[in-house]
Amino acid sequence: MLTRSKLFLLFFLFTGLSVVVKADPLADFNKAKEYYQKSDYENAARLYESIVKSGMVSAEVYYNLGNCYFKT
User: Fold this and answer.
1) Phi first, then psi: what are they for 62, rounded to 5°?
2) DSSP result, 24-65
3) Residue 5 vs residues 15, 17, 19, 37: alpha-carbon distances, Å
4) How far is 53 from 49, CA to CA, in rounded Å?
5) Whose CA, among 44, 54, 60, 62, lies 20 to 30 Å from 10?
């Protein structure tokens, strides 16, 4: 059986891991721009969608995502 201290430790362990795994929207945006310039519109769209899902959105993200959809 887990004690309170073990549960507390597990909680912080999993919380800390989720922060490490979280994507960087700015890095994703720059990588998406690279994909777009190489005409890899599907991967660019995937990254723009991940930015939208992360909650970090701007008009430029939606505009670029729309262009990716148009190009594919």
Assistant:
1) -65, -40
2) -HHHHHHHHHHHHHTT-HHHHHHHHHHHHHHT---HHHHHHH
3) 15, 18, 21, 51
4) 6
5) 54
Judge contact between 53 and 37, C-beta under 8 A.
Answer: no
Q: What tokens does 20 get?
A: 């490490």
pTM for the full model?
0.67
- For range 45-53, the mean pLDDT: 95
Q: Residue 23 belongs to what H/E stretch?
A: none
16-32 pLDDT, tens digit each: 544 445 568 889 999 99
Report the distance separating Cα 62 and Cα 14, nearest Å. 32
Choose among 2, 72, 21, 23: nearest CA to 44. Answer: 72
Amino acid type, 18 = S
- For residue 19 the two structure tokens come to 């922060």
